[in-house]
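seq as requested:
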Amino acid sequence: MRKVIALIGYFLAGVSILALAGCGKKNEDDMLAKIKKAGKITIATEGTWAPWTYHDENDKLVGFDVEVAEAIAEKIGVEAEFIEGEWDGLLAGLEVGRYDIMANGVEITDEREEKYNFSLPYGYIRTAIIVRGDDDRIKSFEDLEGMTTANTISSTYAQLAEKYGAKPIGVDDLNQTIELLLAGRIDATLNAEVTFYDYIKEHPESGLKIAALTDEASLVAIPIQKGDGSIDLMTEIDKAIEELRKDGTLSEISVKYFGKDISR
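struct tokens:
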């Protein structure tokens, strides 16, 4: 009898140890707990795509995404630490845990949802086909067939152009894209409607124009690693976005950078 009791005791002790080990692992994997312990959240962004994320005349990182991410970090109770890089490497870095989240006008797509979890949308945008002012060949997305466009290759803009039969070439940022377009080396480029308006505001002499717009708006959100460890963080980010929408902060930041409210 004593042996049976002893064996039961050893068994229960073993179960307790395994349970504690499991809890420890869960805590180790909990991204929100890690972020709060570190007192900061790392945010991937380009820093070259005005007015979303760019450097002002004093070389300070600013933009719609930058201020939204800072506001989310403040709601969570931590500092926002931005890590800049080229678009094509940002999502890949997020996937392997190089950053906690990404704030860079990231649109939700079926393909991306297979790899990442997404927050509630904080921006709603339409995609524009941008061409030179003297070029009337493109009047719809169907007219992209056989045309040459330029965008960062993994962007939704390049994918959309390819879907309509265009031949997209890869570039590093918006400035390089516009240079190619103005030089006549590409026929068009696809980008956010609001990005075009911001560019024209700063460069009214460029002579660029919008040839066509998508009918429906794309949803811009915060991508994060998939997995149980990111659930609490995503819940907290969603809560922050809802609060920022209700108190008018998202609208205020949007009007500041786009001249209109894209948060609804």
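Residues 33-123+220-258 form a domain with the D-Maltodextrin-Binding Protein; domain 2 fold (CATH 3.40.190.10).
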